[in-house]
Q: What sequence folds into this?
């Protein structure tokens, strides 16, 4: 879809009430980004990018103090969704299977805090304020959830970590919000740069109820954080008649997303639906993560959205691209000593002596890319050749049925 004409952007920017005043409750991220997608000066690196995440769980009621397992489930969802490894891709209409994209962006809870100390990547903060995610401090005018001093949790360096704040929004408010790239230079303090998700829409857990029960609110908001607009563009209201399809204002600045003026909020169509007659895109992309359909309906990004997000990372958020980020795509049980690990430099191999259980291993480099996976049997010695790996630091993650363990070692 083509970019907006200059006169129309000027109209939108000069009339912010038109964009903001008639918001829908699902998502409150409606900043108008630059006209053209941001492109890095040297092109895009074609490898998996890993983003370190810190999750601030801010709670007033004990029931809102989410478990570590719940937080990890959300990291799992992000990795599945952004890597096109979610098991519900089969619902994508046949015409659009060619538009399913692995964004090659992954996420991991931070393993160290900004001072370099070991950390789980989860910050728990009790607050005296109900609906903390909707509260703005009466003295400073800033978001209360973002600062220790106003009952929230102060951000970690927002240039180095994706900060996700989880707390209750006010009844009738949005389920999530996000700060777009560029907003920090246009009125938003760096200390508030990140993603905000309602407690009742975060993670994937049995206690969550449809339509916000599979963690897709966070996927949607991280899409905004990485410069994606709603699939119908930056304007509201939507759910208008087909004449709206001709408005350039409904452009989401991505070439391979269908023109669409319905949100499908909270529902999942049982068959093809079309709100705009377009010969190139005969069916609405109600299954796209940047729509408002129910969680069991939002399942994919497009290649064009992938390029826009990766461009935003290299252009606006390059500090997030770290060399110390290990992808955790599974909710892990308790940590335990599973094996004795020794690296024999001369033999260029790892010697692994497993304790009393069968252990499944995954080997990662520090960009979060999985290089190998294998299994060791109880009380047996295994020698794993690693001589084909470049010199560097690697991380080995072992998991049994009952526990897990992470080893970090240096290949000489």
A:
């Amino acid at each position: 879809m083509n970019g907006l004409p200059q006169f129309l952007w000027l109209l939108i920017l000069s009339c912010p009430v038109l964009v903001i005043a008639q918001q829908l409750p699902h998502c409150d991220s409606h900043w108008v980004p630059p006209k053209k997608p941001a492109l890095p000066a040297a092109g895009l690196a074609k490898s998996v990018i890993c983003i370190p995440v810190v999750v601030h769980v801010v709670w007033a009621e004990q029931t809102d103090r989410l478990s570590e397992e719940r937080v990890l489930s959300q990291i799992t969802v992000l990795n599945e969704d952004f890597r096109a490894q979610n098991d519900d891709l089969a619902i994508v209409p046949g015409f659009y299977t060619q538009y399913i994209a692995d964004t090659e962006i992954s996420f991991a809870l931070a393993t160290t805090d900004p001072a370099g100390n070991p950390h789980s990547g989860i910050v728990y903060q009790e607050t005296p304020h109900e609906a903390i995610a909707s509260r703005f401090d009466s003295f400073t005018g800033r978001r209360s959830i973002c600062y220790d001093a106003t009952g929230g949790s102060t951000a970690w360096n927002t240039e180095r970590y994706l900060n996700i704040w989880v707390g209750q929004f006010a009844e009738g408010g949005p389920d999530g919000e996000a700060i777009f790239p560029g907003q920090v230079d246009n009125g938003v303090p760096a200390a508030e740069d990140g993603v905000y998700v309602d407690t009742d829409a975060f993670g994937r857990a049995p206690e969550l109820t449809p339509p916000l029960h599979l963690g897709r609110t966070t996927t949607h908001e991280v899409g905004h954080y990485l410069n994606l607009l709603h699939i119908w563009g930056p304007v509201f209201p939507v759910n208008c008649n087909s004449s709206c399809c001709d408005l350039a204002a409904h452009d989401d600045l991505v070439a391979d997303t269908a023109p669409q003026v319905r949100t499908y909020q909270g529902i999942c169509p049982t068959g093809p639906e079309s709100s705009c007659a377009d010969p190139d895109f005969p069916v609405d992309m109600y299954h796209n993560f940047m729509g408002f359909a129910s969680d069991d309906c939002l399942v994919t990004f497009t290649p064009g959205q992938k390029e826009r997000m990766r461009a935003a990372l290299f252009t606006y958020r390059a500090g997030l691209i770290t060399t110390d980020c290990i992808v955790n795509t599974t909710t892990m049980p308790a940590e335990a000593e599973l094996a004795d690990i020794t690296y024999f430099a001369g033999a260029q191999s790892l010697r692994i002596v497993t304790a009393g259980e069968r252990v499944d291993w995954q080997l990662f480099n520090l960009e979060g890319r999985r290089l190998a996976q294998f299994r060791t049997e109880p009380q047996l010695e295994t020698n794993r050749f690693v001589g084909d790996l470049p010199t560097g630091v690697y991380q080995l993650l072992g998991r049994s049925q009952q526990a897990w363990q992470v080893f970090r070692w240096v290949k000489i």
